[in-house]
Amino acid sequence: MVLERRPQRTRPPQMHQVVMLNDDYTPMEFVVLVLQEFFSKDRETATQIMLKIHLDGKGVCGVYTRDVASTKVHLVMDAAHKAGHPLQCLSEPLDSVVPSPIKMMSRTARPKEIR
Predict the structure, then answer these.
(1) Which of 18, 101, 85 is nearest to 109 (CA)?
(2) What are the chain's domains?
(3) CB 59 within 8 A of CB 76
(4) What is the Cα–Cα distance from 62 to 22, expressed in whole angstroms?
(5) Mean pLDDT, rounded, for 15-41
(6) How far, in Å, CA of 32 to CA of 110, rounded?
(7) Number of other residues whose CB lies within 10 A of the CB of residue 9
(8) pLDDT tens digits, 68-91
(9) Mean pLDDT of 26-48
(10) What is the pTM of this model?
(11) Which positions ≥6 away from 2 have C-beta within 8 Å?
């Protein structure tokens, strides 16, 4: 008896975005330093993200797998707590922007009605 080997299809892991929230007490320079240290942003990019956080109330620091995003949130929160700042950071799942091929096919390859 010969078994046929079927290729396994694994889905990529769901990605999460790390979001930092604005507050009225955390210094802007501290936010820039956190972005540089924990998210490997250069000074210019970190400053742009910090301004987005300041002006829009929140900003995306990066997109990672769930475990990495969770670790980054904990690192940021710990650093903020140790520095005495109320900075808040959270992780949100990203919605899949690429529809699956089956869903795409079911929308486009429908048979025409015969009259």
Answers:
(1) 101
(2) 15-93 (3.30.1390.10)
(3) no
(4) 16
(5) 98
(6) 52
(7) 5
(8) 999 999 999 999 999 999 999 999
(9) 98
(10) 0.75
(11) none
